TrEMBL record:
This is histidinol-phosphate transaminase. InterPro entries: Aminotransferase_I/II_large, PyrdxlP-dep_Trfase, PyrdxlP-dep_Trfase_major, PyrdxlP-dep_Trfase_small. One of its GO terms (molecular function) is histidinol-phosphate transaminase activity. It comes from the Eukaryota. Pathway: Amino-acid biosynthesis; L-histidine biosynthesis; L-histidine from 5-phospho-alpha-D-ribose 1-diphosphate: step 7/9. Its EC number is 2.6.1.9. It catalyses: L-histidinol phosphate + 2-oxoglutarate = 3-(imidazol-4-yl)-2-oxopropyl phosphate + L-glutamate. It comes from Handroanthus impetiginosus. Residues 93-283 form the Aminotransferase class I/classII large domain. The keyword Repeat does not apply.
Amino acid sequence: MGVIDLFCNTSSLCLDRPKLSPSCCSLRRSRMTFMTPPAASAATPVKEDDQQECGSSLSGDSFIRPHLRKLAPYQPILPFEVLSTRLGRKPEDIVKLDANENPYGPPPEVFEALGSMRFPYIYPDPESRRLRAALAEDSGLESDYILAGCGADELIDLIMRCVLEPGDKIVDCPPTFTMYEFDAGVNAAVVIKVPRKSDFSLDVKRIVEVVEQEKPKCIFLTSPNNPDGSIIDDEALLQILNLPILVVLDEAYIEFSGLKSRMRWVKKFENLIVLRTFSKRAGIFFYLSKS
Ligand SMILES: Cc1ncc(COP(=O)(O)O)c(C=O)c1O
């Protein structure tokens, strides 16, 4: 059985082979494994220049779920190697500003900790017990309420997979982080857009109407919002939390606001999920707070 491992960021996952004939394809965290049919390459001579026929005249694409075939491709960021070749500059001479990354890299303690991991060859704890205990201590929210994911992007997708049936509706409030709309498409959900007002505040009145009329399952709210940094005030949030809808409050940039996270509100509101991420907190914010 042939196995190809691709390590990739789920947000920039892109299948780009003209004819794909997997017998099995699984995605676990950010590691993707394709298993090809048993010893096909050993037993049968393979014409390399030719695209292989699978079964009758089925194309690889025909195995992909129809709604995914219609999706507009996500535009992933370009890695240093590609940028470097395109720009004719060394990676060290490029400062990327398109993905809110920390251009300085991690502090030396991170390399030391990674280099001294005790069992790097064993799968890590699937329940992230030590991390969740540390986060519980840091946040004052018991670890039973905390789920660790491979980035907020993975959690957004997991929430949708757990909550949405194909055809269910979500509310999105653009301009905002585009991953909610993209993942909704992947999960065959319908996106109802309630655009923000000209000052980027939420149009709460319209959200209430849409929830009553369209009965969406969940709403994605971002505070501080990406791209403008606007904050959702308590009054607006409480009004939305009182609706019969799952509220996913994305606080990826909360550290930059100087405001307190609403993480602990989850104990009071059964319909609230709060997202936070190390990619901002321990990335560029770490440097800003130290400088
Ligand atoms: C609002 C917002 N939420 C979530 C994310 C994704 O975070 P992560 O890096 O943890 O996947 C981003 C990334 O830019 C973001 O802007």
